[in-house]
Amino acid sequence: MKDRLATPGDVALTSGLPRYEVLASFHVLEALRMIEPVHVRGNFKIYRLTKVGEELLKALESGGEFEVSIVHKSSSESEMSSLGLSKNPSFGGT
């Protein structure tokens, strides 16, 4: 998918992998924001690499080290962080 748009079907044809495996991988990559749809019509989607996906690909190709962080934010926290605000977590319990 480097420097081009692709569908899961395209990747399945060129890689020889079963389409269901490619679709599952695309769902994971999309959830991780490594790829994003640029055109959607019903179930048909055309994807491209995101900036994050390009950075990861460069690191993998160069054999360099990379670190992956997973941060869960609620939609309200995402909106707040985009405004430069933060939410103090409150911890309950004993």
Mean pLDDT: 82
CATH fold category name: Arc Repressor Mutant, subunit A
Anisotropy-based shape: globular
What share of the residues lie within helices?
A: 40-55%
Q: State the domain count.
A: 1
Q: How many angstroms separate the termini?
A: 50 Å
Describe this structure in words.
The chain is an alpha+beta fold and 94 residues long. The protein has one domain: Arc Repressor Mutant, subunit A (Orthogonal Bundle), CATH 1.10.10. It is 44% helix and 14% strand. It has 4 helices and 2 strands, in the order ααββαα. It has a two-stranded antiparallel ribbon with strand order 1-2. A hairpin with a 2-residue loop joins β1 and β2. α1 crosses α2. The longest helix has 13 residues. The radius of gyration is 17 Å and the shape is globular. It starts with 7 loop residues before the first helix and ends in a 12-residue tail after the last helix. The C terminus is likely disordered.
Would you kindly provide a brief summary of this structure?
The protein is of the alpha+beta class and 94 residues long.
Strands, helices and their partners?
Layout: H1 8-15, H2 19-31, E1 35-41, E2 44-49, H3 51-62, H4 75-82
Helix pairs in contact: 1-2
Attribute tags:
globular, 2 strands, two-stranded antiparallel ribbon, Arc Repressor Mutant, subunit A, alpha+beta, 94 residues, disordered C terminus, 4 helices
